Amino acid sequence: MMLIGELSRITGMSKDGIRHYEETGLIRSSERRAGSRVYRDYDAVAIKRIEQVRQAQQLGLTLKEIGPILDAYADREVTVPETIVFLEERLDIVRGKLAELRKIEAFICQKLAHYRTAER
Question: What's 1-76's CATH class?
Fold first, then answer.
């Protein structure tokens, strides 16, 4: 078990970020009382979950999307075929977003060309 400061040091994540992950249910802790003070204890699972969250964010997922996915597979390993299907689906989504961004880029370039020509 470790306190938030140690978890922060190990993961490189800020204490506020760790608290936010806990508030959103991405990681869990347990209470430990020391006199009148209450501390939060984190176990090694929190380190693993933070790493999984970071990887999921690199795939373009939001924290809101990540939680249910991690919870669904919390008690078992994801198979290679499941991973492939998931990554292919994410790739399709990313490619769709890129296509939309290219259309926006083309529109902006067209407008810029128009206004630059009109300016002369």
Answer: mainly alpha
